[in-house]
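ok trying this again, last paste got cut off
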Amino acid sequence: MKRSVSSVLYVGIAYFVFIFVLVISVIPFIWILISSFKTNREILSSAFTLPSKITFDGYRIALQMANIPMRFLTSLTVAVFATLISVIIYSMAAYVLARFNFKLKNFIYGLLICSMLIPANSMLQPIYTIVKTLGLYDTKGGLILVYSGFGMALTLFLLKGFFQTIPRELDEAALIDGAGFMSVFFRIMLPLSKPAFVSAAILIFITCWNELLYALMLTSTEANRTLPLTMKYFTNMFSFNYQAMFAALVMCIAPTVLIYVLLQEQIMESMVAGSVKG
């Protein structure tokens, strides 16, 4: 009887936590999505009611006033190139850390992983100085360079753990057959670690897409502003036109939400696999 009561209590707490997290994470987005199809008068009169008639005026106004397509393309360009650079470089580093033994390996790995504990605000001044010195201020290249470092710790953690689950005999057989480092890495390790590789790329892309602080500090012209940075100016841009503001927010949030919803199972599987050493 005691075991039955404790199990019921455990299940009840688990469901409560699940519902609580679901409500605080999903309800705001659903509310913004519904509000984007309402008229401004309906939003001001009753923010929590369904629209009497679905209208796309908010999306039309947002596209006209904020030049969202250009900023969408800027965000996409920066996020894609930063993601590609990150996963290629850090996956090689993860392979070296997983397969080769050398002095201070664990110290170097721990030092790189600890970089995720450094607050982003504390790096503003040095990063700004470096980008300014390199002549990359207010350029897409500057943002790509900075963003490419955001996923270092996560990529190393995922891929190093995943590489360790792959039998070493595969590497050794390839080396005996005369394959070099690059050949083993690209022909054997990457195909076998595709789930972790893709998951790291998705998480880095989402981080780069949503980043605001460095985009605000390292850009000054419209041509290089990213889409999340555009959201910052919507309050003044749209004044009290809330339907356009909500429509712009949906267009900014929807790509990352869609990517994560479609690929969440693969991401979770790679996270679990990467945390287990082979």
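PB: full thing came through this time. Residues 274-278 have pLDDT under 50 and may be disordered.
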